[in-house]
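Note to self: user wants both folds in one dump. Writing first protein now.
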Amino acid sequence: YIEDMKGRNYESEFMSTLEETPCNVYENALRPYRMYVKSKRSDFLRVGAHYSISSFFEEYPEHVKIFCYTAKRRIYNKKEAGKFRLAVGTAEISSDITREEKNISFAVLHLGDHNINGGTRYFVSNEAFMIMQGEIQDAFGKGDIPEVIRLMDKYFEGNVYSAWSLFKDEQKKIMDQVLLSTYEDIEASYRQIYDNSYTMMNFFHSLGLRLPKSFSVAAEYIINRDIKRIFEAGIDMEKLRKLMEDIRKWSIKIDEAMINYVVSTWIDRNMERLFQKPEDTALLDKIDSILEVLKPLSLSLNLWNSQNVYFSIGKKHFPSMSEKSLKHDELAVRWVDGFLKLGKYLHVKI
């Protein structure tokens, strides 16, 4: 921006200085600047490309902040044909630092998965935009995808971007969304193998034979996914016990990091509920039962928060409940028994 205002190229002088500066990793300081700084430099066209490409994957409001820029939607027209999607429009991009503003026009073609082409240029006129939009949309409507790509090259004169042009955080977010449908297809395939081969896998087990690799991979994927869902959506004790039996029976390798996380999160959440209703013996028994069922997995759970909650409940309620249990109060006897059992699972002694 300063270079535009002053009409002077400051970067060339800076790069000359870097070239003469020693570096303990590269031959000089210029190379890391080119690799890690200059390559990440943003301008209005790149921000516009980021805005237009990412708009396929999230609903933007009329004004949206993109790091130190603000994008304001002017025109946005989207068309779909099967898995192909096209968006053509205009937007105003402004820098929140320099307050400079530029109007851009763009066109983005999504061919499915991570295959995205987006072109941007500075806005010329309404007439020029309408001609560009008409030709690109006409080619897309005819299903002539090569022509759409050719027209984008023609109108955007090399300012064509892909998913690689997105800012790093947005790249991961969008790739997660792109892969979501792929994960669903993978799970459907593995579940079909698992369901159709379940009796066959039991037969192998009865013969003392090791499961074929294709069976064990499908079973491992589905069992880990099902355990995750149980702790995220709602506990089904019968299904959890069955999954644990299948893990033991077929020597299934569990996803320790994932299961440790979902189980620890579930315990924390339910210990907080117990803190709010400390005399809820049904909840106490439920937590005990879950930890008992999971014991064969020897999980490395993150219990710090739950241990603190347990200690607080014990300090406040254990003396009175213990006294009641000595007087043969049935509810208190059950509570003390369950609470002490939970302490063993959480490695806390009252």
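First done. Writing the second protein, which came from a different request thread.
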Amino acid sequence: MAGVRPITGFVPRAIGLVAALALPAQALLAAGSGDPAGPPLYPPGYRLGPIALPAPGGRHAVGRRQFELARADGTPLPVIAWYPAGKPSTPRAPYFTAAQRRVTAPALARTFRWPATMLDDLGARATHAGEDAPIARGRFPLVVFSHGFLMYPQQNSALMERLAAAGYVVLSVAHPGDAADIPSSRGPLPTALATIADDPDPEASDAFWNAPDLATQKTLLGGLWRAPRMRHMAARLQVWRDDVGVVAAAATGTTPSPLPRAIKAAVRPGGYAYAGMSFGGSTSASACSRDRRCKAAINLDGIEFDRDLYNRAIGKPLLLIQSDWTAYPNAGPVGQRFTSYDLAYERWATAGRTADIHRYRLAGIRHMGMTDLILAPRGPARDRLVGTIDGAPATEAINAITLAFLDRYLGHRPASLSVAAARNPVLEAHRAGDGG
């Protein structure tokens, strides 16, 4: 990371957004390592602690399989599939394969300035998914998932297992260069931490994030999009949209593809959903808005980098779950009644009135808590990383509301998001424009 200048101004105000900008300094801050020039927050040898994925429930056993597709330029696209299995199967898949423990876990530690031991108690854990288990008979709705920037494709395994047990095929794609180092058939695909040009007018970005109300933010939005860093992320967004498009086409298209035949045969014809966390969440909404076969999108705490989705209706059902901006910095100072996310996905003149846009805030959770890391045992160091909420209720809230949303818009099953939210009181419904 030599030559990367620490970022001032904007960074402290967006500290909770690990994948918001492709900037190493910000990624370090967002991951709870403190000032990049200062001492780390974790002592040598620190581990998050044993993480147990919750039982997925559902009517199906769960299988997991890993394979590769490819970008147009031949770059491998590693994919992990979770799917309904015909019966419980052993051995159960490990959270990280041996290759991922050698390659991916150390890369995460380097990027976020974590101790090398940080994920030791996670990587070796067994999941609830049978490795290469036979697929259940039938056809199932498809969800294509994108991880957070600089993260890894199984970062939300608890959610994937829940969806597979409920009857969904989930394909999580690794985005080479923008993910933690990933093993592949061509060897490790390394993280590409590029230096981004200095922002000639940092005050413009600063003013936007610190705006006292939504009306002021609206007037400052143009200046934000002129920032080189935002333009850089918009360019990365196109790459990620292409990646998820490759996966969706391989799973649902009629032409031959490297997708395992049994998985392709298990995917129900018709539409699918895109989902993701952080930059992957931004990707899911942006890709779905452009893909006529996409029926719904899920964004777990991702700032939207598609400028075409501001002051414009996304035109598809959307679930947005945000980290707790009332307790932790998230795209603005702590304690605001509004959020800059309110500016996306709906017309400003009618914001908050779109029936199939569902916005929630998850109390007590930080940005990185929107992953399996929230399941680590409570403690001061863990809480600085993922938030003060216990892992079980946080994970259940994310899983339950996501499943209700997919059942309603993709699975053709009656489901009420309001009922799911009422059963998980850590979720608070939010309407665009509330408090703004």
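Dump finished. Worth passing along: The radius of gyration is 20 Å.
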